[in-house]
Amino acid sequence: MSEQQATKRGSAPADGEHSRSGKKPRAAQPQTIAPAAVVKQEREEEEGDATQSSSEGEASQSSSEGGVGAVVAAAGLELEAMDEPQINVTIGVSLLHCHACFLPLKPPTFKCEAGHVVCCTCRGKHGEACGRASAYVACSELDAVLLDAKLPCQYQEFGCKSLVAYYQAADHDGACPWAPCSCPAAGCGVLAAPARLVEHFRDDHHWPVTSLRYGATCRLPVPAPAQGCHVLVGEGDRSVFLVSPCALGAATAVSLVRVSAGGDAATAAQFKGALWVELPSSKDKLVLTTPAVRSSDLADGFPAADNNMFLAVPPVLLHDASGEAPELMVCIDDPAGDAAANSTPPARCSGRLQ
Questions:
Q1: pTM of the full predicted structure?
Q2: What 3-state class would DSSP assign to 252?
Q3: Contact at 8 Å (CB) between 293 and 257?
Q4: Which parts of the sequence are annotated with region: Disordered (predicted)?
Q5: pLDDT digits over 210-267, tens only?
Q6: How far apart are the first and last CA of the chain?
Q7: With b meaning 16 or more CB within 10 Å and e meaning fewer, what string describes 287-310?
């Protein structure tokens, strides 16, 4: 091969010249790095989205599970708040009575070695009668039954809605404000709770009814025996009192009684009162103070004047020459004793009956 041919084959064409083959040289292609980076970034974003979606799914599932748990917990609390179902059963009374005092068992109760169940305070008494009462065990299960064994008040038909534990029934019945009392009017046989007797007194006998504020003076006209009683209803506790007149020769005897079936042994002894009569234009007074207002169920009518403390109003006051009608003042102390000093009338008086 000649040098000229070698030169033609091996030499590169000069600038601006083309090779004899007639083909143009290829332009240098730039490296494609950016597309690869974009793809990688997209993959990372997809993976991030997938991770976020998975996290959101887990969070949603956790929230859903938490919500279900909250609902279940709330339902559980609601079930606990609901009243436990109640049943009515018939049981032998002896199972609920003390083997020593024979009264209803009062918790806490105890059982001796012989199996006798007694009240806590009856253990000493029972030990004298039972030879195996040297040791006792507590009956906590029976105590739970005694505390929950309840029965309606025996005066339910008269308006009492109380459910009373069996061992407390006697105490409740003795002081129940719904225990019935009788109407003292002659020939009237109505029997009702004091609160309902007030309506009967007003509607059927047309006796006046006045609200009474304890410790304050209540002014009334002196009732005539033919007019019947005057009804007083205490504010707050709604206790019912009757101011009753009756003829005492030419005078009028006025007495005060509380309408209650509980008697003086219940709550009547906490009331003190005073009655006095005066003329508006005169300073003279006749006063009766009572250390305790008597209580009665009126089963035998209104207590007779000779069996009850009364204030005798003489004819000279009933028929005063001035023509003025005397006023009857009634003051009953607060049952709590807060107004005990208020029941004492003013000191200026001409006569006092104790």
A1: 0.63
A2: strand
A3: yes
A4: 1-67
A5: 999 999 999 988 888 888 899 999 988 889 999 988 888 888 888 889 999 875 444 4
A6: 169
A7: bbbbeebbbbbbeeebbebeebbb
